[in-house]
Specification:
This is Adenylosuccinate lyase. It comes from Carboxylicivirga linearis. By secondary structure, the chain is mostly helical. Helices cover 70% and strands 0% of the residues. Helix 5 packs antiparallel against helix 6 and helix 8 packs parallel to helix 10.
Length: 178
């Protein structure tokens, strides 16, 4: 399926208004060409279309995770620079569902720790960072002690969702320490 960026934008706008983005994601979930166009679009200066394309990539990932895998390394690099919290949330959600041991570097993990410890970080971003760091501790158990401290620091002021996720992960981490 070869569509131009303008055609993709028109379809996204049309489907957005009719509430059929999941249908569009299903239709496009096997098209590497469409993913390439969407990937370029989510870095546009036009916020609304950039966010919608990132959202659609996230939906496509739910249908066919493997079609997004070629973009994971670049996604890790871009999320560090991303100021749009909506796009950052979608990137981190996708990344949290993959084994990042071979892809993520120390800077990315440090950034996840930083976002997790920042009270101004949106809840969903923190939740995805918790999952990413937790998954990385399988390969780097030395991170567990620091991760426990950060999670325990969230308990007094975190939202209900943050506290719930932190408590569940803390239980799992305590089992690993033994």
């Amino acid at each position: 399926m070869n569509l131009t960026q303008s055609e993709v934008e028109a379809l996204i706008s049309e489907q957005w208004l009719s509430g059929k983005m999941k249908s569009l994601a299903n239709d496009w979930s096997q098209s590497a060409d469409i993913i390439s166009v969407l990937w370029k679009m989510n870095r546009l200066n036009e916020h609304k279309m950039a966010w919608r394309s990132a959202y659609l990539i996230d939906l496509i990932h739910d249908v066919n995770p493997s079609i997004i895998e070629p973009y994971l390394k670049e996604m890790i690099a871009l999320v560090a620079k991303e100021s749009n919290q909506s796009i950052k949330r979608h990137y981190l959600r996708i990344l949290s569902q993959h084994d990042l041991n071979e892809l993520a570097d120390g800077q990315f993990i440090d950034l996840c720790f930083k976002w997790l410890g920042n009270e101004n970080t949106p809840i969903a971003v923190k939740a995805h960072c918790m999952t990413i760091i937790h998954n990385i501790t399988h390969y780097y158990p030395d991170l567990i002690s620091e991760f426990i401290l950060v999670l325990e620091g969230l308990l007094p002021y975190g939202s209900k969702g943050e506290v719930n996720r932190a408590k569940k992960i803390l239980i799992e981490l305590e089992k690993k320490k033994v």
